[in-house]
Design brief:
The chain has about 220 residues and is of the alpha/beta class. It is built from four helices and 16 strands. The strands form two sheets. Strands 8, 9, 10, 11, 12, 13, 14, 15 and 16 form a nine-stranded mixed sheet that branches. The radius of gyration is 17 Å and the shape is globular.
């Protein structure tokens, strides 16, 4: 874990690819892509069922560890249309009725609105708390008045590192530019998109259950 203050907000960056926002007692996550392995199996591609179960176990762990009261997902919580894995999620969600759940709809969140309602998940196109704007894709326009920064996902940021012995590593990362944070994809069954950070950007890579400040 790594403590990081940003625009007056106290964050803890977790090796489980989420941020815990202390003031709001909220877990911020992105790109869970729940149901993706089931979607591939329906297409005849042999993907283990345990992938989604492991993701839900990780999510339960961070909720318990931080004592969070809310989950805020900045898009792509689910991967596609309904499959059996969503029934597993519904049971898991039913065991945590005290957790408030907010979803910023991403391009993969295409389930019917009544399904989200049945799981007590509040849907939004964008969401604002204090001086932070939450959206799925990084905005191309200026931030709204009163908003100082934006938190988004969608890109699945990754960083390429080279070791002294010519080791090559491609790692997921938290990417902070001047007024923007892009979260790593929470789901383990996702790829990464290599970013090209500028000198003033802050990068925190995730490797071997450790947060590594890169710059």
């Amino acid at each position: 874990m790594h403590a990081f203050d940003w625009f007056g907000n106290h964050f803890v960056l977790s090796e489980h690819r989420v941020i815990f926002w202390e003031e709001q007692q909220t877990i911020i996550a992105s790109d869970l892509h729940l149901g993706k392995s089931g979607h591939f199996r329906k297409s005849g591609i042999a993907i283990p069922q345990e992938i989604m179960k492991q993701d839900l176990m990780r999510l339960f762990h961070v909720l318990q560890h931080f004592g969070a009261k809310k989950i805020l997902v900045v898009g792509d919580m689910f991967h596609s249309t309904a499959n059996q894995e969503l029934q597993w999620f519904a049971k898991w969600r039913n065991d945590l009725p005290h957790i408030e759940w907010v979803l910023i709809q991403g391009n993969h969140d295409i389930l019917q609105p009544d399904w989200y309602a049945a799981q007590h998940i509040a849907l939004h196109d964008t969401f604002t708390i204090g001086n932070l704007l939450f959206t799925h894709e990084p905005p191309a326009l200026q931030l709204p008045v009163g908003t100082q920064a934006v938190i988004s996902g969608h890109i699945h940021p990754g960083i390429h590192l080279s070791g002294a012995a010519k080791q090559q590593m491609r790692l997921p990362c938290f990417y902070f530019s001047q007024h923007q944070c892009i979260l790593p994809a929470f789901g383990v069954f996702t790829g990464t998109h290599l970013i090209k950070p500028k000198k003033q950007d802050r990068i925190f890579a995730i490797a071997n259950q450790t947060i590594i400040p890169i710059q």
